[in-house]
Amino acid sequence: MRPTVSLQLPDGSIHELGHGDLIGRLWTAALHLDDGRISEAHAMISLRGSELHLLALRGRFAVDGRPQTSVSLRPGVVVYVAPDLPLTVRDLALPDEVLALEGDGLPRRILTTSCSLWTHPAPRLTPGFDAAAPAQLWTTGAGWRLRLGGEARTLEPGDTFEVNDRKFSAVAVRFSDAGADATRARGAFHHPLRVVAHFDTVHVTREGGAPLVLSGISARILSELVVFDGPVAWDIVAREVWNDGADPTQLRRKWDVNLARLRAKLRDADIRDDLVRSDGTGNIEIVRYPGDTFEDRT
């Protein structure tokens, strides 16, 4: 139930990647490329509608000799992440449905390769297997597994489980499912948001409310999060926004101040305050509710 793409490197090795997987120089990247021309988080596999796309993040790539920031992945497509470093799409596996998790305080989230479930201070999923989390989930290729209380079991659509007195459910989601028109969260009724990112400006609109136009650093932070389309380390986003060689302490100060300003602008415009959320482990992400749409025009 996990959409995947098989990419072949010049040495003939095949690597299977899925939605949310990173390609880059980071040792934690799903496809680690030890090459100085490759950015730490160079590109990412993303599920868009019923297709898998490769999205440029901190790096760029070319297809058929033309620079691209996004390309639909189909067998035979050759993506050059560097002039002499092609990635060839060998095969795709696109099931009719994917597995998602939802529950008390957790909006529906499609599961990636492996992830950890936390309940404090708020329910959230983070990428990767973290043994400190109260529960972990991962794919075997043919299905999904859940580790809870030190024991692992198969996880299938319709299964429910509890973590620290919170109930969660595994649900099958069709690629074409756009979700409900509105959703109830944090005790309030929220209409869907439409977020259009232009990098230097971002337009946020919702039914019944005036549009919010962000500019400057606030827009750049939100634009980067739209591009990443999933949890990402705060410092990766921050260095994309500033890219001025600031030391970690200075960078963190800039980040905290400007993130607080962004959230204040959202609250002042009566936009839900968890649109941009930190997970407490150094990651930040945009939180999608059913019906929300995000458009990357950067």
Question: What secondary-structure arrangement, pairings included, does this model have?
Answer:
Blueprint: E1 4-8, E2 14-18, E3 22-24, E4 31-32, E5 43-48, E6 51-56, E7 61-63, E8 66-68, E9 70-72, E10 78-82, E11 85-93, E12 97-103, E13 106-110, E14 114-118, E15 124-127, E16 135-139, E17 144-148, E18 151-155, E19 160-163, E20 166-174, E21 183-185, E22 188-190, E23 193-197, E24 201-206, E25 212-215, H1 216-228, E26 232-233, H2 234-241, H3 248-268, E27 276-278, E28 283-286, E29 293-296
Parallel strand pairs: 3-4, 23-29
Antiparallel strand pairs: 1-2, 1-11, 3-5, 5-6, 6-9, 7-8, 7-10, 10-11, 12-13, 12-20, 14-15, 14-16, 16-17, 17-18, 19-20, 21-22, 23-24, 24-25, 26-28, 27-28
Helix pairs in contact: 1-2, 1-3, 2-3
Polypeptide structure, described:
It is built from three helices and 29 strands. It has 298 residues and is mainly β. β14 and β15 (124-127) form a beta hairpin.
